[in-house]
Amino acid sequence: MSPIKIGILISGGGTNLQSLIDNIKNKYINGEIKLVISNKKEAYGLERAKKEGIETLYIDRKSFNSEDEYNEKIIEEFKDRNIELVVLAGYLRVLSKEFVKAYKGRIINIHPSLIPSFCGKGYYGEKVHREVLRYGVKVTGATVHFVDEGTDTGPIILQKVVEVKDNDTVEQLKERVLKAEHEILPEAVKLFCDGRIKLKDGKVIILR
């Protein structure tokens, strides 16, 4: 089976991108990252991609008159490269409805909590971990899900639980959740590339 062509959207350091690069190199994932796009010029994830010879693009939202035009440009770049799967690996923008429609059932996102807890509008990055600690929950974790028209509302593919310790700082909790992200994002991408994910009644079934 030919490798699935993957497009990645990032906004920051790209550690989840690196986990995908590593798992493709070691043949765990039957995929090929064809393009990495960032909305942030200084995102270190772009450097990670360049080091591996992966094509990169910085697309500035300010260069477009509207959010729709900006999203159309990204869709155009992905379609030009026949992208089959889009992965949001720390991408801090909400996709347009047109984008979601264009790649329906083919957009995967990683979120640093156990959805449906601590997710939705305003819940991203360290804000999630800060709220987890403020609320005093005993477990948190990471979730990989398909993207739909809502924010963090798409069908859940995989989740991993992370214990919240009494003396945790935001940074300590973030590091442990990030480790969980690096485990389940490659696993979810592998399942997609192997054709083992089925959507039924709005839920994900993993084929064995």
TrEMBL record:
Pathway: Purine metabolism; IMP biosynthesis via de novo pathway; N(2)-formyl-N(1)-(5-phospho-D-ribosyl)glycinamide from N(1)-(5-phospho-D-ribosyl)glycinamide (10-formyl THF route): step 1/1. One of its GO terms (molecular function) is phosphoribosylglycinamide formyltransferase activity. Pfam families: Formyl_trans_N. The record marks 152 as: Raises pKa of active site His. Residues 5-189 form the Formyl transferase N-terminal domain. (6R)-10-formyltetrahydrofolate binds at residue 109. N(1)-(5-phospho-beta-D-ribosyl)glycinamide binds at residues 14-16. GO terms for biological process: 'de novo' IMP biosynthetic process. Keywords: Purine biosynthesis, Transferase. The keyword Zinc-finger does not apply. SUPFAM superfamilies: Formyltransferase (SSF53328). InterPro entries: Formyl_transf_N, Formyl_transf_N_sf, GART. One of its GO terms (cellular component) is cytoplasm. It is an enzyme of class 2 (transferase). It catalyses: N(1)-(5-phospho-beta-D-ribosyl)glycinamide + (6R)-10-formyltetrahydrofolate = N(2)-formyl-N(1)-(5-phospho-beta-D-ribosyl)glycinamide + (6S)-5,6,7,8-tetrahydrofolate + H(+). The active site is at residue 111. Its EC number is 2.1.2.2. The keyword Transferase applies. Catalyzes the transfer of a formyl group from 10-formyltetrahydrofolate to 5-phospho-ribosyl-glycinamide (GAR), producing 5-phospho-ribosyl-N-formylglycinamide (FGAR) and tetrahydrofolate. Belongs to the GART family. This is Phosphoribosylglycinamide formyltransferase.
